Please model this.
Amino acid sequence: MLEKALSRQTIRYLNQVLGGDVVRVESVEQAEGLPYFLQDAYDVFLCELFGQKIVLACTKGDQSVSARQMDKHMQRLREQLQAPVIVALPKVAPGERRQLIRHDVPFVVPGTQLYAPWIGVILSERYPAEPRRAADHASPATQALLIWYLLHHPVSDVWHPFEEAAALGYAGMTATRAVRELLQFQLFELELQGRAKHLKRVGSRRELWEKAKPHLRSPVQRTLWTYDQRILGVPGARLASESALARTSMLNEPQQTVLAMTAEAVQIAKIEGIGFEPRAPGDAVAVQVWRYTPELLDRQKTVDPLSLWLSLRSDVDDRIQMALDEIEENFPW
Model:
């Protein structure tokens, strides 16, 4: 019955990570009555998982299907076969993964990923986003300080970062580690002025940004959702993602508002009675939990443009990529 390689690998992987022989293929007969466009795009199997009927839709060939289109396909499969659906993919790029999760499409990549929140399972065993060692990535404090420098030091090429680290809430030891990383990545050179340690920029500000990019990550640690509109007034919340991009480009406002907050701000919101969902309801506010403060610019409703660029650079939407190009072009280097 499972003559296709992807379907065999998927069943084997699901049984491996979920334990035992929990996934059983029941039939493909009902799947044969599906519309042709679904039969052309997927090998569909009716299965049993933990005693529950599910549908496994394995993509065929190298066809490129957007997350939005795949979400519509999965809705059609759920309606016709009356069972929850998991789509199996041979591989998934970082931007595609994010879009699938944003559209709440359960998916599995054998040997690598399983996203199925309706059964309480979200696994990421190996994810080859970049062939770069974790040690080559800047810490959140280092990244925040570097972006702070680019935002607030348009002229000076000599910088004493410790006062600004304290203003951002980082202790002296954290600031010292951040300085060490900036020197390790050869973004600055150490300059001693008396007993004080200063950093001298290597190259222009734009060259600094380009050289730093491989060491910088998305500031987004995870995403939560809430129906409570009081979240919009929580101190420390800033418009992020497409909500912020719409304020600085020709991109339309998204249907779902996206905010950025620190984990501490989320805890304060919870204390005030604001509840959060682990899934993405369509009419809820998306709350990105950031690795560092999204308030690097004062008196603005949006996150800073460089952190915004980093949070969206893996997005596969051409409109968003064009808007990110505008951010770099218009930034006061």
The first helix runs from residue 5 to 18. The first strand starts at residue 23 and ends at 27. The chain is about 35% helix and 20% strand. Confidence is low (pLDDT under 50) at residues 126-134.
